[in-house]
Amino acid sequence: MGIVQSVNLAVVQTGDWTGRVGRSGIDKRPAGGPVRFEHAGVHGDTVCDVKYHGAWYQAAYAFDSEELGYWSRELGRELVPGNAGENLTLVGCDSSFAVIGERWRIGGAVLRVTGPRTPCRVFAGFWDVKGLVKRFSEHGRTGAYLAVEEPGEITAGDAVEVLSRPEHGVRVSEVFALKMQDRGDLAEHVAGGLADLPEKWRESIAARVQRYRSGRHSTMA
């Protein structure tokens, strides 16, 4: 399915762009060796805004090297592994098209795809790009949040092996499109994957599905 280009850990930054917390771990840099992935998160990483990050279903975040290349061309500057705030930079994986609930073995760990990343002002501030939240949302390739089912070490060069894939076929990008792109045509399809979403996200997406079913909807921020 692909390989790990790098495993990345936070270098905590401060500044006006970091928002209400005043510090952020979105700036991640490649580790020099194996990194242990635990149920609670990635060993050696730092989560600053625990209100919106760091839940068990956000234990790790994967983003594609190909997407870093896309944004490098869009912005006219080179983005390198870790620049999207990802713990895992993947090559040949297309993590945005992974199925919700899909399970991966990477190195000594087993990870489960839980949902899309939603861009925020801190992300836009880190890249220093006005309007990035809108542009990133319109592009729709968000990468994937991951839960850790079996802790273990992961290092650059490890293969990504798909262990199982739910039959509902609801992709990370489709959940995001329903939530952020007003894609009501996906509502019934996404409803089939609700059971594999973490409870907090399940409730939000289920409410969105119900609004489409009843003919009432508004774009979620």
Any overview of this molecule?
The chain is an alpha+beta fold and 221 residues long. It has one domain (3-168): M1 Pyruvate Kinase, Domain 3 (Beta Barrel). It contains 6 helices and 13 strands. The strands form 3 sheets. Strands 4-1-8-7-11-10-9-13 form an 8-stranded mixed beta sheet. A hairpin with an 8-residue loop joins strand 2 (13-14) and strand 3 (23-24). The longest helix is centred in the last third of the chain and has 16 residues, at 199-214. It is globular and about 50 Å long. The model has no long low-confidence stretch (mean pLDDT 95).
Determine the number of helices (DSSP H or I, runs of at least 4 residues).
6
Number of domains: 1
Strand numbers in spatial order across the main sheet: 4-1-8-7-11-10-9-13
Instruction: State the CATH architecture.
Output: Beta Barrel
* SSE pattern: EEEEEEEHEEEHHEEEHHH
CA distance, first residue to last residue: 32 Å
CATH class: Mainly Beta
